[in-house]
Amino acid sequence: MRELNNNWAQEAYIKAYRFAAEKHIGQKVPGTDWSYLAHLSMVSMEVMAALSHETDRDGNLVVQVAILHDTIEDTDATYDELKSEFGRHVAEGVLALTKDGAIEKQHQIEDSLKRIKLHSKEIWMVKLAERITNLQPPPSHWSSEKKKKYLKQAKLILNELRSGSDFLSYRLTAKILEYQSYI
Q: How far apart are CA 98 and CA 55, in angstroms?
């Protein structure tokens, strides 16, 4: 495969995007009429921007995991299916980013971060990129308390995964500062 930016291939992106498009069909970004693919595109755009600065990373891994990061959590996709289609590293990265529904909701972020930190910095990059993407103006129905909790989680993600990507850490820091205006 011919690689772009010397660290990710267009074909790897397209393969993951097609798989995600099929799995997330009909899903919407919560609180919008947007296709869920908008969220996946924004997360992958964040990691691709980072890869243009951090060229020592496995670009195919991070781009594919960025696009597929919610497939186990939000669709009928399985770890084994991802492993078969994209390999063990991608499947394990997606699994690390998947919330464990057996854990109480208030403890899921800590559990998720603990599992993410067992993986390569590419997986850390996806979590940073996802939170950057999610720090948009909050839905109007969110309470002040929910907004504060979400901001606190963003700060925790930044503190725990900061060394995963200088570029994305800078972006997340800026988004956190912007988000404070909604509190």
A: 26
